[in-house]
Amino acid sequence: MIFADLHIHSKYSRATSKDMDVKHLSRFGEMKGLNVIGSGDITHPKWREELRNETEPLGNGVFKSKYNNTLFVLSSEIATIYSQDDKLRRVHHVVLFPDFDVVEQFYDELKIDLYKRGKKCNFSSDGRPIIGMGSVELCEHLFSVSKKNILIPAHIWTPWFSVFGSKSGFDNLNDCYGEFAKDLFALETGLSSDPLMNWRLSSISDKVLVSNSDCHSPFVSRIGRECNVLRGDASDFSYDYLLNALKRKELEFTVEVDPSYGKYHFDGHRNCNVCLNPSESIKIGNKCPVCGRELTIGVLHRVEELADKPEGYKPAKAVPFEYHIPLIEIVSNLVSSGVSTKKVWVIYEALIKKYGNEFNIMFKVSVDDLNNSFANLGSIVKSLRDKSLRVKPGYDGVYGEPVINANVNPQKSIGDF
Ligand SMILES: [Zn+2]
Ligand SMILES: [Zn+2]
Question: If you measure from the C-alpha of residue 292 to the centroid of ligand 2, how many angstroms do you get, rounded to a whole number?
Fold first, then answer.
């Protein structure tokens, strides 16, 4: 199996960790069990230079880290901002490129077009460029440069920045992507929605649902928290292999956090400490009971608005999915210490040493074996595998929290490790 996280940001994007570099991505990606990482931010000249210097091209769009066997493909997230039908639209798109030359051609095209229209965009200032251009025009540029370029609508339900978002999105793909909508073959579900929720829209049932971390820090609590699992072995991997797997919907499964874990699952107001499920907010007219203003409508609510299939519906040929909570968060809960404490890291590192990587622990190792290694770890992994772990829902930018009862036979150190 090939584990691939195709959407991350480098240290050149706003609000990202200074450790978002090839070295740390390779190191933590390997601990997680990732084989392939989308470079992110590839339109940023300095990040391109770093990638060129710190990876070795293997041909066919794949670049091997000089620090270990982590493979990179060239990707970016582009934010478009424009007005359509008297409404301000902000839509994010994940784009992937087959090689550096194509990236540079695309980048030149965009710059010339924006210049002609008197619009500014400094690609050197933010790794995730924000451009004043419609989604259709972006597609025109992207696909005129190379038919092999891939565009995946990013985190499609995020309220402010996505194709279906409650604040600035559309009700269907065609309104956003026009004639290009039918040729897009993949959609990114984002942290706050899972395939179950997306399966309820028959209008997108011909697309493959992909999952990525969109992480701003390379740490193991962030990278690979959502990702895609392709068939085959890392030695089979190439850009064309990825392109074909997506086009043919040939994914083994996707790795998903419980959608409640995402920052926009429920409705609410972060500053007013108000978190509501959709039926509660509908009852009070979607107005905040504390400040009286419009609530931030979360992903669950928005899916319900657009869904035409009942809960639990599964389309034919749907790619299966598995739930995941970063192991370091599970350990942190089990020993009641912070995720970034030394104590938690020592236990995490010992578990990785024993089992190879985090995805082995999540998807391969037996529950008994894990319980023997660390009290209750196997039971929690089992509750992820059978999708019974409860998560307190996130809302209005606040992450959800897994409900892990650490008081049952707690183990406080690695002890007999
Ligand atoms: Zn985004
Ligand atoms: Zn409020």
Answer: 6
- Asked if residues 19 and 218 have their Cβ atoms less than 8 Å apart, the reply is yes
Quote the ligand 2 centre to 287 CA distance (angstroms).
8
| C-alpha of residue 76 to centroid of ligand 2, in Å | 34
Range of the domain at 367: 327-417
Q: Which ligand is nearest to the CA of 291?
A: 2
Contact 325, 384 (CB under 8 A): yes
Domain count, the chain: 2
Those residues with Cβ within 8 angstroms of residue 273's Cβ, 6 or more apart along the chain or in another chain: 290
Cβ neighbourhood burial of 300 (10 Å; 0-12, 13-18, 19+): buried
Looking at the fold, whether 15 and 148 belong to one and the same domain comes out as: yes
Question: Ligand 1 centroid to 251 CA: how many Å?
Answer: 23
CA of 286 to the centre of ligand 2 (A): 10
Residues 333 and 255 in one domain: no
Written as tens digits, the pLDDT of the chain (417 aa) is 999 999 999 999 888 999 999 999 999 999 999 999 999 999 999 999 999 999 999 999 999 999 999 999 999 999 999 999 999 999 999 999 999 999 999 989 998 988 888 887 778 778 888 999 999 999 999 999 999 999 999 999 998 899 999 888 999 999 999 999 999 999 999 998 999 999 999 999 999 999 999 999 999 999 999 999 999 999 999 999 999 999 999 999 999 999 998 899 999 999 999 999 999 999 999 999 999 999 999 999 999 999 999 999 999 889 999 999 999 999 999 999 999 999 999 999 999 999 999 999 999 999 999 999 999 999 999 999 999 998 999 999 999 988 886 544 444 444 433
CA distance 186 to 178: 16
CATH of the domain at 69: 3.20.20.140
139 with 30, same domain?
Answer: yes
Has residue 265 been placed in a domain? no
Q: Which sign, positive or negative, has the C-alpha torsion 146, 21, 398, 128?
A: negative
